[in-house]
Structures are given as C-alpha cells and as structure tokens.
Amino acid sequence: MTPVFENANKVFELLATLVRRPGKGELPTELADRNGIPVVCLVGDDLTELTDGIKDSLGGATPHRIPHEFISMSVIRDEVAQESDPLPAEWQPVEVYRRALVALAQEFSSVRNGRDERVRFRRFGLVNWLLESDYPAREPDPQQDRELLRRLREREFRRRRLFGVLRSPDTEVSIQGNIPWWALVLGLHLFPLAWFRAWRGVGAEYRWLLRQPYMAPRDPGTFPGFAMRLTRPRRGRENPEQVGKLMINAFLEDLRVAYRRRFRRRRAARRTAYCVAFLTDVNDANHGTTLIRSLVDVRNETGVFDPLAVLCTGTGLDGELLGHELRGQGPLSEDLYGIWRHHFEAAGRSRSAAVWYLPIDVPAPLALEAPTYQQQKNRVDLVRRLTVDPPPGWARRRVTALAGVVVVALLAGGFARAFDPAPALKWRERHCGLSRSDPDAATLERRSTGECVGVAPNGYAFGSKDPALKETLSTIARQNDEADKIHRAFGERPVVTLIHLSALLSSSGQPSSLTYVREALQGAASAQRRQLDKRGATDPVLRIFPASAGTGMRFGPEVVGTVERMMRSDPSIVGVTGLDQSRTATITTIEELTRIGLPMVATSLSADTLDDHSPMYYQVSPQNRRQATVAAAYGAHLAGEKTIPRRSVRIVYSADPTDEYSENLRADAAGSFDGAGFDVEQQGFKPSPSPPAVSGYPGPRTVGEHACGYEGLVFFTGRPEDFETLLAGVNAACGSNPPFLLGGDDVARMAADPVRRTAYPKVPFDFMDFTLGSTSCKTKSDLYSTLRKLFPTECEQLANTSLDGHASLAFDAVNLYLKAVGQLQDAASRLPLSSLTVWHALSSIHGTAALDGESGRIDFGGVVDRQIPLDKIISVQRVDGVKRPAQVGFCGRWGTLSQSTWCPAPEQRGGAG
Q1: How confident is the model at residue 161 (pLDDT cuts 50, 70, 90)?
Q2: Residues forming a β-bridge with 699
Q3: Within its chain, how far is the Cα of 209 from the centroid?
Q4: 319-328, 453-462, 825-834: segment of lowest average pLDDT
C-alpha cells in the first residue's frame, strides 16, 4: 500500500539517492556531491505503511531488485534469550550482532539477487565460523590449535569442489590399484595439506584477519593463536565490544571487496545499487541501539567507505536524536541528503557517532478525505518505483560474452571454412531448416527441445502441419507486404508494427491443439485488414509479426532478445499482443519486455499479479479474482436452484508450482466460494507433462473418477489438456450420472475445437468465457464480417465448430493500440510514434474514450495505474453432447444488454479492480 503523508515523496527520493551507486568514483574524495551514507532514523508513531512501501520499492526496483533485508531486532533478541545455554549478559549483545549480520549475509548472498548482485562473505564467514566453534576442550591441551586447524582445513576442503571429488570414497575406490602408490599419497594427502598451509598465508581472508585493527591480532601474531582467541571457550577473556566490532568490520570489508571496481573484476562494476539493511524496533533492551553505534564507530575508526545503507525504526536512539542538530529542520526538508552532508563536512575530523545519523520526522498518514491526499499520493507514486542505472557497457555480461563469442566465432569460422564441408547444412539445422536467403531465418532458431521459436513476419509456420494455421500466417505475411507498399506510396501514413507473441506450439503441435492460437491470429489479421483498408491521409498502416515462445512460454526471454535486436533497425515496433498462459516463464517474459521498453496488451491472461510485474502491461481480459467472484455467484445460483444438491465446491488445481494461473485462480476461488457460504475443499493433481518437482498427487483421470458421486460443484482451475483427461475419468466411471463440472476460462481453448469438445458427449460441463460465447461469421460485427472475407473456409466450418472468443480478444487488443495511436495523432500530430508514447496513450482509454470492443467494453477506469479493464464481461457457457456451446448467463457490461440476475455487483470506477 502506498504510504501517504506530507512530503512522503522526499523519503523515497532520499532512498533513491542512497542506494544508487555512482557510475564513476565512489569515495567521498572522488565525488563532490557525496560524503558517505548516513544511518537514516525514521521517527514517528505509525511507520507500518512507510516500511512496507520501502520494502516494495526495493523489491520492485528496475532493472533488478535492490539487495535488502528487514530485520526485527526484538525477534533476534528473543531468540538469543531463549537459548538453552544462555550466554553471560556482557556477551549477549555480541550474539545479537552475530545473528543480525548472519541474516544480512544470507540475504545479500542469496540467489534471488542474481549472479551479479550476490556477495561472497569470506571474511565474515571465517570469523563467524571461529566464533561458533566450540570443539576445543576447556581444559589446557597443547593439541588444541592443531585440532582447530584440522577442522578449519576440512572446512576449506568442503568449500572447494576439487578437493571434495579427490577425497570422496568413490574416487579412492576407482583409482585404487590403477595409479602408483606415491601418486595416490601425493594427490590425496600431501597436496591438500600443502595447499592449505600455503592458503593460510596467501588467502585474502586469512591475511585480512591478521591486519584488521580490532582485538590486537598481533597477539600472539600467528593465525592459529589469534583463531584460538575467537573460539567459544577462550572468548570469555576477550573484550565483547572488540569482538562485536571485529564481526561488523569483517562484514563491511566483504561488502567493500565485492563493490571494489577493478577492470578484471567486472562483476563489481555491474553492481549499480548499494545493499540496504533495515533494522526495525531498535531499542536498548534488544541491543539494536548498540549495534548501530558499533557500526558507526567502525566507520569512524577505520575511515573506510562501506557500501551499505542502514535504515532503522524504534525508540533506541531517541535520546541521541532528541537534541540532534538536524531535528527541527521542518517535517521533511527539500534536500535531506544535502543538509546532512553539509553538517557532516562541518564536523570535520571530530565526528561523533551522532553525526552519522539522519533523523526524519515522519508525519502521521493523511486521511483519504484530506484535501492534499491525492496530490501527495501522486507524488509518491512517481518516485516510489526505484530505478537504478544499468551497468557500464564494458562490464556487461553480454559484452564479455560477445567478446568471447567474437573470438570463438572467428576461430570457429576459420576451422569451419577449412574443415567443414557443409556449413550451409548447419545453418539450416539451427535456423529451423531455412536457408540464409529466407527472410525469416535470421529471427528464428531451433531450441534444445526441438521447437522452433522466434519472430516470423514473412509467413513461416513454426513447423506446424496445420493447413489452416499456415493459411492464417500466410495471410498476415501478405498483409505485411501490402502495408510496406502502402507506406512507400504514401509516406505520410506511418508504419505501426505489433508483435503477436504466443506459445504457438504449446502442446502436441496437432491441428486440434492449435485452434485457439489460429483464431487469435485470425482476430489480429482481421484488425490489420480493416486498418489497411482505411484511406485517411495520416491513417497508420499496420504490420503484425507473429512470434512463438515455445511450450509454456519457456523461451519467452530469448524471443524478447530477438525483438530487441529487431527494434534497433525497426523503430516502428511499438507493442506486443498475445501472451499465453500465466506461468513463471510468462512473468519473466513480461519483465523482459518491460526492460526493453515495449508495452503489452495481453489477450487471455488473467492471473491477478501480472500487472504488478510491469507498469507497461495491460490486458483485455478480466483477472482471476473477478472470474472467481463470478464463479462463486454462479455456484450460489446453482445451489439456490437445487441444481447441485449441496452447497459445497471441490476446487481442482494443478500442482505445478510454475503454473501461476492455476495456483492464483485456486486461491481466489477458495476465498470467493468461502465468502459465498460454500464448504470448500481443494484437490491438487499431477499435470501432464509433469514437472520433476511434482510428486504425491493423483493424475487428473483419477481425480475425475473420484469426483463421481460428489453432490457439490467441481470447479476446475487447470489447463485444457488436463481437463480432457479428467473428463475421460468421469466418463469411464460415471458417465451416465456425472458430477456438475465448471471449468475456468482456459477450458475455452478446448471447447473451441469440435473434436476435443465432443469426445465425451455423455458428460456435460460448463466453462467460463471472456466473451459472450460462440458465434458465427454471419454475425453483424466488424470482426466477423472481415473474417468472412479473409478466411471463408474457416467460416464454412462453423456449423460444427465455434469461435471461442480468442479471435475477438485478439481483435480488441490490436484495436486498443490503434485507438491509442489515433489519440496521439489527434493530441499531438507532430509527436513521433514510439513504444513509450503509445504506452502513455493506452492509459487514457477510459470513460467516453473507452473501446467498445468485440469482447465487450474495455475501460481502464480513469486511474493512472489501472491496467485491467473495468467490469469486463465474463460469461458461463455450457457444453452438452455434440452441440456447440450455449451461453447460460453473463456478467459485465455489453452494450445495452443486462447481465444475469445472479451476477455480483459491478466494479466501481476508480477502484483497484
């Protein structure tokens, strides 16, 4: 939730200033406008919303999340107090420090930060291991140092893969008797011991430990002696304050090394944001106060810059902040960092700990009805999405990889020309069997799964054998050629290019599995045809570039990389339509499209959180939360009519953890049905194909068999191929008396195909649809009148098939872009068309400017950050026997038609949706 109080935007501007790493230089002596990173102390009564807002900003930063960790000092203090073997009082602060630093180290080294942002804590890891070591005996023992070194040696061996392989039992057995005895002794025993002895002298963490300023490491002057002082039995003789500062300095030194720019260490240059430690509930009792003071002391005593931004809340520093010279500067200054820097520099060398603090008095949150509430909220919304600089070009992985690729390519090219008798065959194999002369070859590639993915503007069918799909793609290619000719003849008509991205071969590749894909492409082609037929002097000409991301959108990021390359030479590419299946790979694709600055209008995606991943993402279909609400209302109607004997529901969902759609719809449905008074039970199933991580769940056929005799509603939230298998189980076990089945909107893909839909005529079922339902080419509408001309064969088959709504959804998605372009031309005719200007115009489609589309009214509600249509239509369709689906009701706005009486209340304009 956005924190709204007076000048709240200044807090987020300060946060951006602190976490953004300068492109060049870092030390205060190198930058005129920076002087270190203060400890920001947030002072206020209710900081929950602000804390959550900061967490969201750090986690949602672009182009990548900023490494951060929120730590409750009271929780850590409680853990220490509850230990079965409590520490002496003077050592408890040290243990609190250690646990807090361990938590920070675990987060900053986590894989969630990506390879470039992960930090390796070698020094702190060594110090922490020694502090935790309790093996040496408490009684005097001259062998203690040897035993400690043995355990430390084993630790080093476990951390290095080579020694792990050499010392494994399998290795010893396999080489026994196969190599000379002296080689065995040398390789398995002498070499590891010699390496460890040498590493103790040259290893960075070992050398640093004997050179750092705390605990007088020169006493006794050797690593074993100093290490023994840090182990638990000997630690009681040491100064707890010095031990705590040693840990903090080790932690900060690892951060400094990770961020130290060296040409040979390009990963450090790729770190463009500082790590953030947010300590909550800081007070004297939980030692949070002393932790912060010790950190500041380390900064003062070492005089070395450390790349760590520390924020805190709590009462522990109230005494020091009460008379702080930066208090009383107003609720929030215009330049918080600038004023702090001025006071910091004025302190000179006589800096006290308090000089490092930057206190911020946080005003109370504004009430919704406050006059300045919306103004303040808009200011916060503009700055809360943090953006950090991309890494310098020379340090990027792609540049390094490109340099390597160039070298390898030159070498490989020379060898290929010298030794390869058929280089053209390799090219064709890699580029989907196409020769170099084919215009689609350069943007297509065959992946390891055998699928052909990429962009095909010129009619390539991605290996499909479906003649109807081939004809559809050929039609789009012909219209693309026509668009180019029109632009050459009438140069004032600008070219607008859209990428239609889908999981084109998302199942077996058989014609029956491609029906929904074909219909979506036909809808896009129809919108393109109508645009090309316009004769206005400045009417844009439209090109559609079909693209395939492979099964389950798994190669979406790779396809986005291809689109990015195309954009460099073709600035007319302004957006993306399509997008298939709410999976983890789809979310990654959305994030990649956002990275390259392309807006998206998805046709059939419905997971609730997709718009959270990108401000450039829009969709023409409703979200799962609305679908679940309509499903629950329909279920309540069925229960009221006694169509189902019991007011209960069994939600059947996919156990695939990457299927965001099924999991999200399951959760939404559980909440909606529970709120409607249903007894809710949930049944997971093992989808097909099954991911390796899924086990312990029955298959969909078994779930269908177990549904026999169920007197409530069975609500299916999975994929259509698994719904078919579930129907097979129901048909075999109780086809004469099946349960009442209701499928989610994805089942509409199966219902669009007559062969799949009528495979089990004894088992009727209902399903959710994002349009009014099946129709025909005789319908009087812009879409179907154009379809009849473009694809007459498709229309002739409609006696036995149905246009399931994917055509109309895709038609509307394309027309949203055209409407946005038209509004730009009306408002600023000289403004060049680009992806960013078109994105800005999409948000203005609401109210009187809403789109009266083929799939219903598309109105983004007049809210700046709303990306989902308001009160979008959802219908319930019924399949009974071999007949086409028939509508049994709908909810939402469609012309002058009234929604069904059982529908939930309409969504309110300006709501979150």
Answers
A1: low
A2: none
A3: 39
A4: 319-328
